[in-house]
């Protein structure tokens, strides 16, 4: 891994003008929130306490219902960092590899994986770019044979996570800035490159490349994609459109998930 936070699982010949494809993670490549799957897997191993996982789920619920405002992003970041604070880098790496096989692999969107494979078949670089923890992003990128991953990095000290953020939370404009930095570092021509996301919060990234795609888009991104003439790929088998909108529906689904998780945790402690 380089000092810039880049985790690579493959290499390609150097040279200017190469092309790449950049994929968001949650709801674009993986159904749902990857940090939730990480927390669930860590809890099953006794690494993560019930208190921490319930607090993380609560922050996630607030985040989904109220949207990605500054305060809610702070809550999401606190949740993300609290999950692994105090843990050793080695145990998190080992657990994340196992959690990929147990929980994440079956939640990959086959259609999105196929899109990535198309870029790989054309000898293009393929990068995972996400606000999710770097540890999760690295494992998924490696398993899928991507060139590498850019994720949010947690600070480390003496082999343990401190619970503080290192660098930027890769979200919104900061995600686009990280991709721009990577492109300069590796000689990638963004005008000939592609990006895929489900969220309107990734508009800075989508507008940075010459080939933006909306994948399983939220309402705002779908509207923007239609206005701009961007391709839309929706791999969801069924969507429930209710009067209070997609955000409300997402909040409701998350609420059910929280209640279900609480019940399972209570049963496990009996």
TrEMBL record:
Keyword Zinc belongs to the record: no
Pfam families assigned: HAD (PF12710)
Keyword Transmembrane helix included in the entry's annotation: yes
Molecular function terms from GO: hydrolase activity
Name the UniProt record assigns to this protein: HAD-IB family hydrolase
Taxonomy of the source species: Bacteria, Bacillati, Actinomycetota, Actinomycetes, Propionibacteriales
Xref: InterPro entries: HAD-like_SerB, HAD-like_sf, HAD_hydro_SerB1, HAD_sf
Family: Belongs to the HAD-like hydrolase superfamily. SerB family.
Entry keyword set: Hydrolase, Membrane, Transmembrane, Transmembrane helix
Superkingdom of origin: Bacteria
Transmembrane segments: 241-262
């Amino acid at each position: 891994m380089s000092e810039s936070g880049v985790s690579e699982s493959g290499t390609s010949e150097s040279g200017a003008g190469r092309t790449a494809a950049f994929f968001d993670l949650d709801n674009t490549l993986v159904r749902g929130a990857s940090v939730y799957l990480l927390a669930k897997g860590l809890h099953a191993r006794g690494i993560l306490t019930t208190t921490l996982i319930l607090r993380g789920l609560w922050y996630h619920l607030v985040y989904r219902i109220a949207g990605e405002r500054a305060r809610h992003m702070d809550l999401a970041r606190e949740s993300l960092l609290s999950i692994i604070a105090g843990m050793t880098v080695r145990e998190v790496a080992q657990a994340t590899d196992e959690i990929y096989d147990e929980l994440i692999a079956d939640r990959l969107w086959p259609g999105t994986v196929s899109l990535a494979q198309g870029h790989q078949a054309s000898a293009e670089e393929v990068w995972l770019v996400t606000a999710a923890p770097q540890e999760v992003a690295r494992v998924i990128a490696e398993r899928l044979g991507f060139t590498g991953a850019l994720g949010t990095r947690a600070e480390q000290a003496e082999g343990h996570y401190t619970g503080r953020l290192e660098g930027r939370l890769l979200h919104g404009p900061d995600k686009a800035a990280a991709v721009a930095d990577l492109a300069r570092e590796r000689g990638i021509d963004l005008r000939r490159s592609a990006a895929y996301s489900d969220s309107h919060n990734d508009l800075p990234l989508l507008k940075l490349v010459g080939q933006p795609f909306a994948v399983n888009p939220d309402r705002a991104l779908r509207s923007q994609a239609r206005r701009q003439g961007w391709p839309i790929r929706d791999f969801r088998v069924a969507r429930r459109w209710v009067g209070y909108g997609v955000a409300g529906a997402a909040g409701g689904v998350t609420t059910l998930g929280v209640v279900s998780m609480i019940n399972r945790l209570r049963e496990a402690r009996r």
